[in-house]
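Problem: given the chain below (514 residues), write out its structure.
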Amino acid sequence: MSNPTVTAAPANKTPVLVAICLAAIILPLSFVSGSIATPVISRELGGSAQALSWITNAFMLSFGCFLMAAGALADEIGRKKVFIIGVSLFALFSGLIGFSSSLIWIDLMRAAQGVAAAAALAGGSASLAQEFEGRAQMRAFSMLGTSFGVGLAFGPFLAGLLIAHFGWRAVFLSSMVIALLSLSVGVMRLNESKNPNAAGIDWPGTALFTAMLALLTWGLMEIPSKGTTSVEVLGLLGATVVLLILFVAVERKVRHPMLDLSLFRYARFIGVQALPLSTAFAFVVLLVLLPMQFIGITGMNEEQAGLMMMALSLPMLIIPMFAALLTHWISAGLVCTLGLVISAIGLGWLSQAIASQDMFAALAPMALIGIGIGLPWGLMDGLSINVVPKERAGMATGIFSTTRVAGEGIALAIVGAMLAGFVGQGIQQLSLAKDSHTASLAVQRLATGDLHQALLELPSTNALQLTAIYASAFQHLLLWLAAITLISAAIVFAALCLKTVPTEVSETLCEPDQ
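Solution.
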């Protein structure tokens, strides 16, 4: 039970909304800018392909692992307090990254940054729910979603612009500045609130869940260098299964679980969880892979790559609002299904542009993917609440947010392993490497878009050969992503559009709004 909301004039609440929305902008901005900065960090600091991939994966992994725990902590000790701590630490870690000269230190700080991001998002969202009510609350959360869209849409371009003119450190220092602006407003204007009936944090469940995700991601990221049959990979994946079993056992016995497993008896709840997973494979992974393609393989500078990426991300500013309008005529479930089908078509089209190595031909299919993903993106947060009984909405949104963020990190690891596998097949077929160790190093470099280092590992080859191998591998990957997106569309349609499973929740998913 939360504290009653104290109403006030809308003008008095504007600084609160500004503070939380500023924090919301820097979270996706930090994610996408990391992928733009990785190639130039590699040139300056060096490092293995695996260590470089953790610049993005460390942030996403810790963000996803600690989101639900941060929400419980906000209810326990205070939403404003958790928000302020999260934003403060985010600013601190961003500054430390900006002044770092060690890749390992950057990876560690990115993981810490993800924990801070989880606290900022959990505390900020909960504070927003307390500060506003009724239609004002709906508008406030709409602005929060728009802020995420702004960070996502302009993040690649802003990162490219900063790197081109000021270097990669400016990317992280700019995040620090925005976080400090958010903090300066939030400290003065946010009101403290907490849940007097909070049940505390499920520490055993949180520890098992975090360790499980970390080992799973680690195991997937080891596949490109060690192979799927290596003892290390099999050990990590086996340990993941053991932790999953222990996690389920603990959550079924603990009085106040981190994850209420009984929610999974709702077919529509499962269908909604498929939405963030499908957007991760169809859209989010491209925010990392395409900049590597444009910069490391094609030879564009960071500013040009950022401009190219806007074709993919700009529709996210407009289409989510259009999706809400569409629900007046067709059901939300059908809108989401349609969006995933459009994205799958765009992925298939993009695979042909990549195969022809015509980057400007990639702009139209990138825009189509962004349009398609924008449809479920604008609806899935609301659906996460509507598919369960009202009294369980809080837990449902926590699970949904965790599925979204943790799923993005896992999707990145899976897709990275798949791309490395396809690149490895190309190098093996042409017998370009003298030994398996050299081949493994070349595969890791080329799969992360580092054409220059791959050429150093394979001096008998030329750039045209390796570029053709990468293009073929990326084409195959995009076709697989299109297939995964179509399968996800089928799952979403079956779970959200077919009235075959009786539930105790609203049927509005199957019908248009009146």
